[in-house]
Amino acid sequence: MAASMKDIVCIGMALVDSIIRGLDPNPVSASGYRAESGSLNVGGEAVNEAMAAAKLGMDTAVVCALGEDPAGEIVSRALEKTGVEVRAVPSPSTPVTTMFVRSDGTRQSVTNQAHRFNFRPDRDPSRFTDARAVILGSLFRAPFDDPDIIHSVLRAAKDAGALVLADTKLPNFRFLTLEDLRDSLPLVDYITPNEDEAKYFTGRENPEAMADVFLSFGVRGVVVKLGAKGCLLKTAKETLRLKALPVRAVDATGAGDNFVAGFAAELLRGAPEAEALAFANACGAVCTTAVGAASALESREQVLSFLREAQS
User: Fold this and answer.
1) What confidence tens digit (pLDDT) does each residue in 165-214 have?
2) Domain extents for the chain?
3) How far are the Cα atoms of 107, 188, 222, 241 from residue 185, in angstroms, in the given order?
4) What is this structure's pTM?
5) Closest C-alpha among 154, 209, 147 to residue 182
6) Cys-Cys crosslink for 266: which of 114, 149, 235, 279, Cβ 3.0 to 4.6 Å?
7) Please, what sign has the CA dihedral across residues 11, 124, 85, 78?
8) Half-sphere exposure (CA, 13 Å, Cβ side) for 70?
9) HEC states along the chain?
10) CA-based diameter of the chain, in Å?
């Protein structure tokens, strides 16, 4: 293995989340509202995953589009501070998302046209083919809402010998189906939708049935993130299901991204799937204990300690 080989390269969206927590729907003036708190946090699935992976001890890089604007500077500084190598592609602007977080940690978000900037990671495979694992931050969202881009990136990653994980998102501007990706999905080692995404793309109600649909398209393993109901992993050989760990949820933003980073990191350390899934489950739970996707998780030791206490 080359000395310069990265453990994980994450590819996908980078943005800034403006998180409004505890919005009071009753106006205090004709155009004014109050909220419990407001904060700016770096976000985007690839960024969240990369920062979490770096905190878990992985040598990590992120391939993302960043504008030369204040939002882009915020993202770059946060990534560099966390030890993530930034492989930025110039963009007209950096997307900003406004998130409204409820008291139970669930959320709604508002995006804008900047989220559809579709940079082309396939044009320079050297940005991600030096990795033991490649994570597609948001399958079905830019830049992975184009079948040709998806296939080119997956093919290059697999040809380089990488473990490939594809997280998913509900589409917002361009709509693809699993059938549109029939030639690409067999190149994915693990796909990691949440329950709503899995239901949307498969049309099934039961998590195991959802996983079966993905498996029928050639994906090697399916992890369905079930939020407060835990998680499910299914392959052709086994089915694993874990309950959610007890935690006081403050903000679920980025919990799924921390989950994916934890799963990939433990697999790279040689952990069996069951152990990697348990660790990932703990990473997602830890993430929810603070506002923002990159606020709560600090280290692998922290997650292991949390997991031991939760299982005792």
Assistant:
1) 999 999 888 899 999 999 999 999 999 999 999 999 999 999 999 999 99
2) 6-23+36-311
3) 29, 5, 11, 23
4) 0.90
5) 147
6) 279
7) negative
8) 4
9) CCCCCEEEEEECCCEEEEEEEEECCCCCCCCCCCEEEEEEEEECHHHHHHHHHHHCCCCEEEEEEEECCHHHHHHHHHHHHHCCEEEEEEECCCCEEEEEECCCCCEEEECCHHHHCCCCHHHCHHHCCCEEEEEEEEECCCCCCCHHHHHHHHHHHHHCCCEEEEEECCCCCCCCCCHHHCCCHHHCCEEECEHHHHHHHHCCCCHHHHHHHHHHCCCCEEEEECHHHCEEEEECCCEEEECCCCCCCCCCCCHHHHHHHHHHHHHHCCCCHHHHHHHHHHHHHHHCCCCCCCCCCCCHHHHHHHHHHHHC
10) 63
pLDDT tens digits for 215-232?
999 999 999 999 889 999
pLDDT for res 174: 86
28 or 132, higher pLDDT: 132
Q: Which residues contact 114 (CB under 8 A, 6 or more apart)?
A: 15, 92, 93, 94, 95, 96
What percent of the chain shows pLDDT beyond 90? 70
Average pLDDT over residues 43-61: 96
Q: In 3D, which of 243, 247, 188 has the Cα closest to residue 219?
A: 188
Euclidean distance between CA atoms 275 and 269, whole angstroms: 11
Cβ atoms of 296 and 286 within 8 Å: the answer is: yes
Q: Show the tokens assigned to 201.
A: 């793309």
How is residue 42 written in tokens? 């770096």
- Residue 105 confidence (pLDDT): 66
CATH number of the 6-23+36-311 domain: 3.40.1190.20
Under 8 Å between Cβ of 96 and 114: yes
